[in-house]
Amino acid sequence: MNPIINELNLLELCGIGNDEAYTKSLASLGDAYYLWTYFTGIIRTLRRPWFDYRNELPDVSTALARYSRLGITSSKTSLRGLLHWNGKIALRDMLRRPQFIAEAVQATIRHEPEYPMLFGYSDFFVVPAQEFERFAHLCGVFGALNMFAEVAIPTALALTCSDVRTEYYPGEVFAGCKPPRFDSQRKWRGKEIWEADILLFEQHYGLNLSQLMNNFPDSCIYIHPIKLSKWK
Questions:
Q1: Are 129 and 19 in contact (CB under 8 A)?
Q2: Cα-atom radius of gyration of the chain, to the nearest Å?
Q3: What does pTM read for this prediction?
Q4: Helix, strand, coil abundance in the chain, percent, nearest 5
Q5: 192 - beta bridge partners?
Q6: Smallest Cα–Cα separation from 18: which of 213, 171, 163, 154?
Q7: Which of 42, 198, 209, 215 is least surrounded by Cβ atoms within 10 Å, i.e. has the fewest?
Q8: Alpha helices by DSSP H, the chain
Q9: Is the peptide bond before 225 cis (omega within 30 degrees of 0)?
Q10: Tens-place pLDDT, residues 9-39
Q11: What angle, rounded to 10 degrees, do the helices at 98-109 and 39-47 form?
Q12: Distance between alpha carbon 81 and the CA centroid of its chain, in Å?
């Protein structure tokens, strides 16, 4: 996390009001890329839950109304979820996780989740103090379901908080068939680096943590992933 951020300047730097929550992105789980590692596991969880979790959550119509107020339309699963960033089916991913394809088709045709869920990056988020107890309770419910964090946290935020500020426009997804759009008003953002870019980033700072902390990228909230076991 950027070393200049502290409890006194966090809200101002990130453009968050006192009563607002904050996270990078919120989108309907139905818009997720099927071969995102955790997608079909979530479908399985909701298909055969360990307990009647719905007694602990707002009813479906209330959940949909909350999502709508945040600018998010809940989408049903469909075969468009097989498309990756470039709008094509990623053969490499299919070969790597062949069992997910069958599950994706089943999810589309037969097993639409009974409860509308959201997903999004959850490396950094802010919860208003007055909403924290309810938020923590919902996270406990999703934790008991063994729900992955990047579904549990965004859904709990949206069900708990009336105002949630995001870096991406509402409904834009990080694991879909096109790159997401950033909200132009969000000058401070988190930075995710993947695959070959990780090596370039590590080489730029020489895997020296002091170099990174002393020369942190401007207007950057956090950098993910940084594996501290590799850095000096």
A1: no
A2: 18
A3: 0.86
A4: 40, 10, 45
A5: 224
A6: 163
A7: 215
A8: 10-14, 39-47, 60-69, 91-96, 98-109, 132-144, 149-160, 196-205, 209-214
A9: yes
A10: 999 998 899 999 999 999 998 887 766 656 6
A11: 50
A12: 16
